[in-house]
Specification:
single chain; alpha+beta; six-stranded mixed β-sheet; three-stranded antiparallel β-sheet
Amino acid sequence: SDDFPKSWLSDKSNKGFSIEQCLEVFRCLVLLAQEYNRRYPENDEVTSSKKLSVFCPVTKKVELIAAISAAVELGRSKVKEILEFLEYCGDTDQDLWCHPIASVSSNECALLTSSLVTPVPVRLVEHWLVSLGQDLQSKGAHFEDTTRTELNRALKKCACVTDYAEACTFKLRVGSETEEIDLACRIAGVILLGEIKSIVTTDSPISQYRTYQTLEHASNQILRKSKLFKNNISLAFEQLGWAYDESEDYQIVTCIVNSGKIYAGSQVQNVPVTDPTLLCRYFEDSIAPLLSHIDHKTQKTAHLAWYELYDSPATLAENLSKYL
């Protein structure tokens, strides 16, 4: 996964199972919930407790364990452990979207189908990792590495990128002052400087506000760092190992790369917010479709209206800041 180190997903947790195994079991529950949803009556008016119970299917735990065990090829004891982990017990750190099962007796459980059919996978994994004692701090370093790797892959494949220096991270040292820049990349005469932020999934007004605060802090950081870079540009080039052309009027473009994707496409304190998908997409295709359809003969997508982002190396570099 681009969002988490592979070991976090594949290694056995302190509960005896891995996140990957938990996701497999959860996937079965999602499919089961979707099937129940299809069987619900079209008239969802509730006039009695009996009618209400129709929308909360109850199943025997033994039968559920046996069915999932056969579907995902995990031992029944392992599936039982995972289902117990996914069970909602009313703890303050639990919610119904990450723990969408509730025991109604010692041998039966209810499936919370509304929660199961609307999962947010990244948020699920974040919540489960914390519940299993994993510190999410190092998630940031993984996201930074992934962002630079994906951007370099896109740059390498882009036919209009003919003169560039790969995206990297480095520490700019000017006298006693040192600034660490998460993303530094040169495309012709444009220098892209970015602050990369790994932010947990936004799921409430409070977390949305905290996310915005984080992005405000990030904008202050990248504005400060870009100013130091601009004022010492030849020294920065030297430290990066880039060839500095005194005749070139270099343009510095700043951005914030946000893992949570929220606010991507907008600006925070005049600094564009983007995400790895949007950033790489610019170099992957010069066409931004506005209106498309499926051609019945070829079964391929045909664009009826589109916006051309660039048509040459010069316009690619020139339009990057406008795109962001």
